[in-house]
Amino acid sequence: MYDTLNNLMTKFSKETTELRDDLLREVKRMDDSKEKEPEFKNASIQVKSLVQRLGALTNNFTSHVTQCVSRIESDMMIIQGVCNTSGTRNDVHPKPTSCDDVDKSGVHTIYPDFKPSGLEVYCEIDQGKAWLVIQRRKYGTVDFYRSWEEYKTGFGNVSGDFWLGNEFLHHLTKYKSRQLLIDMETFEGKKAYAMYDEFGLSSEAGKYKLSIKGFNGDVQDRLTMHTGKMFSTNDADNDDTSTRCCSCIYRGGWWFTDCFDSHLNGKYYYKHETVPSPHGIWWFGFESSLRYVAMKLH
C-alpha cells in the first residue's frame, strides 16, 4: 500500500511539475511577444501568479501525503508489535468473504476466493438471513441494453440500479447452488415474490447457461422455463430462435427462449409512459411493466 501511495505521489509531482513548466514556457512566450497591450501583460501576470499557487499547493499536498504515510507506517508497526508480543493476532477481525460475514444491510466489500482484491456488493440482512443482491431495478437511471462484456463484468451502482456481473454469478454458484429470491412491485403498490431453491450459472464457455429449480412464491413460476438457456445480449444472440434477436427487440440481456416468460432486465418504463406489451420489466401474470424488482442470492 505504501509503495502504491509513494508511486502515486511521485507521479502527481512529476505531472504537476511538467504542467508548471509548460505554463512558464507559455508565460515566457507571452513576455517575448511583440504584443504589448495592457490586457496581454495582465494575463501574463495572472498566469505567473497561478503557477506560484500551483507550486505551493503541490508542495503542501505532497508534504501532507508523506506525513500521513509516515503516521500509518508508525501505527502499523505499533500494532504489529502488540500482536507479536501479546499473541492477540487472531483477535483482528478477518475480512468478510460473503454477506454471511456482515451484520447489517448496506454496501460492503467482500473478499471471496475468486476476487481477493475485493468485490463491492449490497448485502441485505432480513430476519437473520443474509442475502446478496445481484440485480436491482428501482430508479430507471441505468440502461440495461448492454453488451456481453458489460453483462459479464457488471454495471450500475450496487446502492441503486445494477447488474452484479455474470462472471461473478458463475463463481458464486460454481461449487454450490444458491437460493434465489426475486422481489417485485407494481406501480400500484402490489408486492410479490418468487423463490427458487437452487440457482446457478455455467462458465462463460457455456454462455452462462441458467440452472434453476424448486419454485415457491405468490406469483406464477415464470423463470423455470428459462432453465438450460444461454445468456443473450445485443451483441451475442444465443436465444432459441434463428429468425430474430430477442435481446435486441426487448432491450436487455437475459436467458431468452423465443423469447420469454419473464424478462427482468428490459427497458425501464415510468408510470406515465405507454408500455408496448410485453416490453419493459416483465413477469407474465402482471398486467404491465414492473416498478421495482430485485434478485438476491443466499
Automatic annotation (TrEMBL):
The keyword Disulfide bond applies. Residues 90-298 form the Fibrinogen C-terminal domain. It comes from the Eukaryota. Keywords: Disulfide bond. SMART domains: FBG. GO terms for cellular component: extracellular space. PANTHER family: FIBRINOGEN/TENASCIN/ANGIOPOEITIN. This is Fibrinogen C-terminal domain-containing protein. It comes from Dreissena polymorpha (Zebra mussel).
